[in-house]
Design brief:
With about 425 residues, this protein is of the alpha/beta class. About 25% of the residues lie in helices and about 40% in strands. The chain has a domain of about 260 residues. The strands form 3 sheets. Strands 3, 6, 7, 9, 11, 13, 15, 17, 19, 21 and 22 form an 11-stranded mixed beta sheet that branches. The protein has a 10-stranded mixed beta sheet with strand order 5-4-8-10-12-14-16-18-20-23, with helices on both faces.
Length: about 425
């Protein structure tokens, strides 16, 4: 049975000393905690968060690293599948418990837990951890920075191209607790990497929370893909902020697949500052039962010749609620830039609700193009009738229509393994 722990400066300091952290890290944690207390609860259209949703959890108990893959809990092994040949970091209740570096991973590439990186590569972590001003302008990111017990640390040197996906698996199974994971992804100039993050929790384990940050540093000309698959149990809460400020000519793909949690807010913020930088946001979501899923995608253009594209599709059924909030701003002097949004939501039941809230603001006169489109609609009876007239049962026809609805997004996903997992999650949601 987990007992509530009183969080505060004293608790953070004591834990930092106990873990042998350097002084600079303790100071940044305390500054983040002070900022967390000052910041208001984030406000989103159609999604209401309360102060209690930040305070009702106790920190998860630190887990001990395992000797080998077979020593991991069965739920983690079922979730991750066969580990052979994969570049893999596993976190159990926020603690890094397993690392695997496959043969052939280029020299200089670092793939480990953030807690491990603080011990093994403190000089690198110090350069990037809580270094941006934006890191402390959101209550979720400030709390995650102050409390971070784990997360991921990736470093790819200049010009190095990593051909295999770098994977992070987060598993939560301690009821009444929260994990606070802070991930740093550093891609130096001209490098290339793909990150695949999977977050899940033990079904029926009770209420758990996740407060997370993914902070991406994309150097000049780098190409980065960050994909997340969120399949937490429906008694879980997930509040995650993902951020990038790409340098000149860098290209970043966000891929979000939101299927789990009773309440989930996935906020993906991009500030296109580097000249010629590009960011694409791809998203799929499926809300059923009494889930409330919110996918926020923000593209702020400050640099010249920058380009952003947002493409999202989602399905809601039962009493599910889904919010899709794209926001694009092309600021003054972001000349010759482009920003587009497209979002479509399919509603399968009269009780389900979907909200699409697109915002497009163009301050600069000299742009290449900008536009947005959003639709919310029901499944067409004529489509169902046609498929049933060809011998399909009603539920089979519905599944085929949903598969076809998601296909334009799934087809754009640049990671084959992620495509397969998203398709499997869609099938699972339709079967439930």
């Amino acid at each position: 049975m987990t007992t509530q722990t009183k969080l505060g400066r004293e608790w953070i300091s004591e834990r930092s000393v106990r873990d042998g952290e350097p002084g600079w890290l303790q100071q940044r944690r305390l500054a983040a905690w002070d900022r967390y207390q000052q910041l208001p609860v984030p406000k989103y259209e159609r999604t209401r968060l309360k102060e209690s949703q930040f305070e009702e959890f106790a920190p998860a108990v630190r887990q001990v690293p395992v000797e080998g893959w077979e020593d991991l809990p069965g739920g983690i092994k079922r979730l991750a599948g066969d580990p052979s040949g994969r570049a893999l970091v596993v976190a159990h209740n926020g603690s890094t418990v397993f690392r695997q570096r496959p043969a052939g991973l280029p020299d200089g590439v670092i793939l480990t837990g953030l807690d491990v990186a603080v011990r093994e590569h403190p000089e690198l972590v110090e350069q990037y951890f809580l270094r941006r001003g934006e890191d402390l302008d959101n209550k979720v990111s400030a709390l995650s920075g102050a409390m971070a017990t784990g997360g991921l640390f990736i470093y790819v040197p200049k010009g190095v191209k990593v051909s295999v996906p770098l994977e992070y698996v987060l598993w939560i199974d301690e009821p009444g607790t929260a994990v606070y994971d802070y991930s740093l992804v550093v891609a130096e100039a001209g490098s290339q990497l793909t990150l695949v993050e999977t977050a899940a929790s033990e079904p029926g384990a009770g209420r758990v929370g996740r407060f997370g940050v993914v902070d991406v540093f994309a150097g000049e000309g780098a190409r980065v893909t960050c994909a997340n698959i969120q399949s937490l149990a429906e008694d879980a809460q997930s509040l995650v902020v993902r951020r990038v400020v790409p340098e000149a000519r860098a290209h970043v793909d966000w891929v979000a697949a939101e299927f789990g949690a009773g309440l989930s807010v996935n906020e993906m913020d991009s500030r296109l500052d580097g000249r010629g930088s590009e960011v694409r946001g791809l998203g799929v979501f499926f809300a059923g039962g009494r889930q409330h899923l919110d996918l926020e995608v923000r593209m702020i253009h400050t640099g010249r010749e920058t380009a952003s594209d947002i493409l999202v599709r989602g399905v809601v059924r039962d009493h599910g609620r889904a919010v899709y909030g794209p926001y694009t701003l092309i600021q003054h002097d972001a000349k010759e830039s482009t920003g587009f949004q497209r979002g479509n939501t399919l509603v399968l039941n009269p009780e389900a609700r979907a909200y699409s809230i697109p915002q497009l603001h163009v301050v600069e006169d000299e742009v290449q193009g900008a536009g947005h489109a959003a639709t919310i609609g029901k499944m067409e009876p004529d489509h169902l009738f046609y498929l049933q007239s060809r011998g399909l049962a009603k539920e089979q026809a519905k599944r085929l229509i949903v598969d076809g609805f998601f296909y334009p997004i799934i087809d754009h996903v640049p990671v084959p393994a992620v495509k397969e997992r998203i398709a499997a999650m869609v099938e699972r949601k339709m079967a439930s």
